[in-house]
Amino acid sequence: MVTMSWHVEIDEHTCIGSGMCAALLPEVFALDGAVAHPVTSSVDADETVLDAADSCPAMAITVTDGGREIGPRP
């Protein structure tokens, strides 16, 4: 069985530090001072990661799968 992984990035210039991502997925996102950052850039494919990207009020989270942007969703 092949485990799919996604790449997660947070634009530190766009992030407003709301902490919604860190509250939703503390194992993937951490709030560090005024901005959030991914704990790791490669994460297991998980719908909750997309939910975090969708819920970011600044739209600062980008999720890619094999170079194709899949989050935030339109």
UniProtKB/TrEMBL annotation:
<dbReference type="GO" id="GO:0009055">
    <property type="term" value="F:electron transfer activity"/>
</dbReference>
<keyword id="KW-0479">Metal-binding</keyword>
<dbReference type="InterPro" id="IPR017896">
    <property type="entry name" value="4Fe4S_Fe-S-bd"/>
</dbReference>
<keyword id="KW-0408">Iron</keyword>
<dbReference type="GO" id="GO:0005506">
    <property type="term" value="F:iron ion binding"/>
</dbReference>
<keyword id="KW-0003">3Fe-4S</keyword>
<keyword id="KW-0249">Electron transport</keyword>
<dbReference type="InterPro" id="IPR001080">
    <property type="entry name" value="3Fe4S_ferredoxin"/>
</dbReference>
<dbReference type="Pfam" id="PF13370">
    <property type="entry name" value="Fer4_13"/>
</dbReference>
<keyword id="KW-0411">Iron-sulfur</keyword>
<dbReference type="GO" id="GO:0051538">
    <property type="term" value="F:3 iron, 4 sulfur cluster binding"/>
</dbReference>
<protein>
    <recommendedName>
        <fullName>Ferredoxin</fullName>
    </recommendedName>
</protein>
<dbReference type="InterPro" id="IPR051269">
    <property type="entry name" value="Fe-S_cluster_ET"/>
</dbReference>
<comment type="function">
    <text>Ferredoxins are iron-sulfur proteins that transfer electrons in a wide variety of metabolic reactions.</text>
</comment>
<keyword id="KW-0813">Transport</keyword>
<feature type="domain" description="4Fe-4S ferredoxin-type">
    <location>
        <begin position="6"/>
        <end position="34"/>
    </location>
</feature>
